[in-house]
Amino acid sequence: MQENISSFLKGQFLLAMPDLNDMNFRRTVSCICEHTQEGVMGIILNRIHSNLTGMHIFKELELDNIPETELIPVHIGGPVHINEIFVLHGSPFSWQDCFMITPDLALSNTIDILKAIAIGKGPESFVISLGCAGWGKGQLENEIMNNAWLTCPVVQEIIFDVPVEDRWSRAIKKIGINPAVLSTTAGHA
After folding, report:
1. How many helices (H) and strands (E) does the chain have?
2. Could you report how far apart the first and last alpha carbons of the chain are, in Å?
3. Closest by CA position to 17, among listed 158, 135, 131, 168
4. How far, in Å, CA of 32 to CA of 143, rounded?
5. How confident is the model at residue 2, as a pLDDT?
6. Which pLDDT value is given to residue 180?
7. CA distances from 170 to 13, 87, 113, 162, 175 (A)
8. Cα-Cα-Cα-Cα dihedral sign, residues 18, 20, 24, 29
9. Percent of the chain at pLDDT above 90?
10. pTM of this prediction exceeds 0.85
11. pLDDT at 117 over 80
12. Which residues pair with 11 in a beta bridge?
């Protein structure tokens, strides 16, 4: 079963079950960007730094920017590599080292995309995050089997158009589950 799980997590949402109490992941929705036999990497989509914006990122990197980009929110992408910047984005996909997640979604973390975003010439849809989420070999698969997570295909509307505070419940509803009645008891048929 573990091999079957690892064949489909890339390009999936990872939705925390209501009783997952790890403060890094409580009621989170993450986009799984890569899944290999060695582990899993994703970006949390519904946590924002309360005191960081695009202005801080551009200033730190000494990038010219326009006033309209200064208030871009900076997400808390996860508890791993917390000083690295990741950009989850839609088209175009011509950025240096652009890593495709699905045919319509990519991850980049090179200066060219940040320069373009700073001057309003980046992708139309994007999320900037500091850090990412990571799981070692077999760790996430075991957590899924122990009922800590639900999965479903990525929905770009939820990533880019739904308010951050509504992303978890909207993603849960997208798979046909009412979050208010979501059971925390595992069932294995």
Report:
1. 6, 10
2. 13
3. 168
4. 15
5. 46
6. 78
7. 12, 22, 29, 8, 9
8. negative
9. 86
10. yes
11. yes
12. none
Q: In the chain, what are the domains?
A: 2-181 (3.40.1740.10)
One-letter amino acid at 47 equals R
Residue 30 has pLDDT above 80, yes or no: yes
**Hunting for tokens 């800590």 — which residue is that?**
148
Other Cβ atoms within 10 Å of 35 Cβ, number: 21
Cβ–Cβ < 8 Å for 88, 99: no
Mean confidence (pLDDT) of the chain = 92
Which of 174, 178, 177, 168 lies closest to 29, judged by CA? 168
pLDDT at 100 > cutoff 90: yes
Our measurement of the distance from residue 32's CA atom to the centroid of its chain's CA atoms, rounded to an integer in Å, reads 7
Q: Which amino acid is at 138?
A: G
Which two tokens mark 156?
A: 């770009």
